[in-house]
Amino acid sequence: MEQKAAAYARADLEDPEDQEDGAEVAPVVLVPPAVEHAEAMAGVLADPALYAFTGGSPPDVAALRARYARQAAGSPDPSVTWVNLLIVAEEGEFAGYVQATVTEAGRRAELAWVVGTAWQGRGLARRAVGALAHRLALGGVRELVAHVHPRHLASRSVARAAGLTPTLLMVDGEQRWEGRVAP
Asked: Which helix (H) or strand (E) holds 81?
């Protein structure tokens, strides 16, 4: 599974269909998180407004260091692959993250994403999720799932752009979205 995670986590992922209104859009750069990224990411994730729909509070540097160390070690369950990638904005600074938990012998991935407040509205989440979904499909994933709060319009838009559609299933106040992907 570790090789699989490395294949999914290649830096410089881009969506080959990445165009907005006919204009060229810069490819999104995604890099695996490392403990040394914790300080910068703590700033990206510091706005309490980011947690309005999901609950919780901003992580501090120590919590992010511990999280990134756990993520680098990989899932303790050999049937599960974690794919965690930081989004790098056009200016070269971190802007958020995308992640996938790959299960069912690599055929299904549950997606999640967060973009820091200062970087929202630029299409970064859409491009990052699209690039990750594309890379997952190339690795054999065929089903994508995400859970999105029904009032979180931006995340609903990201899910829709990734080819997901809402279901009637609600889990912990979030609506399940599903979609199929092909390489």
From this structure: strand 81-88
Q: How far apart are the first and last CA of the chain?
A: 19
In the three-class reduction of DSSP (H, G, I as helix; E, B as strand; rest coil), residue 14 is classed as coil
Name 169's Cβ contacts closer than 8 Å, sequence gap at least 6: 175, 176
Whole-number pLDDT of residue 24: 56
Torsion from C-alpha of 125, 128, 130, 133, nearest 10 degrees:
-120
| pLDDT given for residue 26 in this prediction | 73
Q: Is the pLDDT of residue 129 over 50?
A: yes
> What is the spatial distance between Cα 122 and Cα 140, in angstroms, rounded to a whole number?
29
Could you state, in order of their start, the residue ranges of all structural domains in the chain?
2-180
pLDDT in tens, 18-39: 334 444 567 899 999 999 999 9
What element of type H or E holds 88?
strand 81-88
Q: Does domain 2-180 have CATH number 3.40.50.740?
A: no
Indicate the burial class of 19 (C-beta count within 10 angstroms; 0-12, 13-18, 19 or more).
Answer: exposed
Total number of residues shown for the chain: 183
Chain centroid offset of residue 167 CA: 20
Q: Beta strand pairing status for 143-148 and 108-115?
A: parallel
Label residue 67 by pLDDT band (50, 70, 90): very high
The 3-state DSSP class for residue 99 equals strand
